[in-house]
Amino acid sequence: MSKTIAINAGSSSLKWQLYKMPEEDVLAQGIIERIGLGDSISTVKFDGKKESQTLDVADHVQAVKLVLDDLIRFNIIASYDEITGVGHRVVAGGELFKESVLIDDQVLAQIEELSSLAPLHNPANAAGIRAFKELLPDITSVAVFDTAFHTTMPEVAYRYPIADKYYTDYKVRKYGAHGTSHYYVAHEAAKLLSKPIEELKIITAHIGNGGSITANLHGKSVDTSMGFTPLAGLMMGTRSGDIDPAIIPYLVENVPELEDAAAVTNVLNKESGLLGVSGLSSDMRDIENAMEEGHPGATLAYDMFVDRVKKFIGQYMAVLNGVDALVFTAGIGENGWMIRRDVVKGLSWFGMEVDPEKNVFGFAGDISTADSKVKVLVIPTDEELVIARDVERLK
Ligand code: ADP
C-alpha cells in the first residue's frame, strides 16, 4: 500500500489529490488559491468534510508544506514519509516528452526550457516540482505531460502551412492540450462500449472553461483542436479559439489601446470567447440563464459556442472517415445537457441522436437513442487518476 499525490500547479494555485494506491481510493483533495497574493485560501476535502482557511502562503514551497501539514492535522497521514510518490501535471512537453517520465535534474531543466511554449504554465509546474523536491526529496516523482498523448499526430495534422524553417528552427507546430483527459475518456469509452480501443474511432470533446476536441483513431490522437498554444480551436470561456490571424495586426494598427501583438493576445486569451461575445460572463451557466431571459449577447455567444463545437466534430468525422462514439467531458461536457442536445441536433444527418430522457443533468454513460448510429457518451474525466496511475507504473 502506498500513498500518491497528484499535483496540478498553476502560477498562483496548487490543486492536489491524494490516493491510496493501487486501490485508487481518493483519501483527500484540495486546492490552495491566491499563492503569493497575501490572502491565500486553502481548501481540503476528506471524509465528506470540507475545511477552508485563509492565510498568507508566499510561494509553492510553503503551499506544499501547508498541504502536508494539513494532511497530518486532519489525520489523513501520520507523517510525511507515508507519501511515496508524486505526479505533476506539466502543460508543455514539446517534442521531447512523448510519455510520462521520472523527474531528475535534467528533466526539470528541460521542463523549464519548454516554458517558451507555455509561459504561464510550465514555470508554475516547475515550481511545484521543485517544492516537492525540497520537502520530500526521496519519493518517486513523475511528470505527466498534457501534450504527450498528442505526439502521435501525423505530420499533416501537426504542421502549419507555413515555411519549413518556422517549424525546424522555431518549433512552430501543433502540440495540443488536455491530452491526459482525452486519453482517459477515450479508454473509458472503449470500456463502456465493451470493444477494444484498437478497433474504435472516437471523437472526444473536452469542454470546460478551456476546451478541445480530439480525433482518436484506435486509441491514438490523430488530430486535436488546440494548437501551438491552448488559444486555438474552439470558442472558450475567455479565449477566442481560431480566428483569422490577419485580425491581430489589423487590431494593432487600428485600436489605440492595443499597442502591440502582446496586447491583442491578452485580449484573445482573457477577454474573448463567451465573455467577450456576451459582454456578461465566461461561465456557461450564466450564459444559459441569461439566454433564457432573452439576453441577445448571451444568445449569440451560446449559438456561436455550439456552432464551433459542431464544426470541429464534423472535421474530425472527416479526419477519421467515420466515428463510432462521441464523448462529452469536462465542466460543460459533463453537465451541460442543453449544449449536448444542441450540438448533436446539428449532427443528426451523420446518425447521431441523443435520448432526451438520458440527456439530463447528473447522468453519465450512454445518452444516445437505441437507433443512434454513433454512440453519444458522457464520461466524467479524471486526469488526477491517470497521473496517480503513471506514478504507480513508473516507481
Ligand atoms: P476548467 O477548464 O477551468 O477546468 P471546468 O471543466 O470546471 O473548467 O468547466 C467549467 C465550465 O463548466 C463553466 O463554464 C461552467 O459554467 C460549466 N458548467 C458547470 N456546470 C454546468 C451546468 N450544469 N450546465 C452548463 N455548464 C456547466
Automatic annotation (TrEMBL):
It catalyses: acetate + ATP = acetyl phosphate + ADP. Its EC number is 2.7.2.1. GO terms for molecular function: acetate kinase activity; ATP binding; magnesium ion binding. It comes from the Bacteria. One of its GO terms (biological process) is acetyl-CoA biosynthetic process. Mg(2+) binds at residues 8, 383. Gene3D superfamilies: 3.30.420.40. The record marks 178, 239 as: Transition state stabilizer. Its main location: cytoplasm. ATP binds at residues 15, 206-210, 283-285, 331-335. The active site is at 146 (proton donor/acceptor). Its cofactor is Mg(2+); Mn(2+). One of its GO terms (cellular component) is cytoplasm. Substrate binds at residue 89. Pathway: Metabolic intermediate biosynthesis; acetyl-CoA biosynthesis; acetyl-CoA from acetate: step 1/2. It is an enzyme of class 2 (transferase). Mg(2+). Can also accept Mn(2+). It is found in: Cytoplasm. Keywords: ATP-binding, Cytoplasm, Kinase, Magnesium, Metal-binding, Nucleotide-binding, Transferase. It holds the Pfam family Acetate_kinase. PANTHER family: ACETATE KINASE, ACETATE KINASE-RELATED. Catalyzes the formation of acetyl phosphate from acetate and ATP. Can also catalyze the reverse reaction. Belongs to the acetokinase family. HAMAP family: Acetate_kinase (MF_00020). Homodimer. This is Acetate kinase. It comes from Streptococcus cuniculipharyngis. The lineage of its organism: Bacteria, Bacillati, Bacillota, Bacilli, Lactobacillales. The gene is ackA.
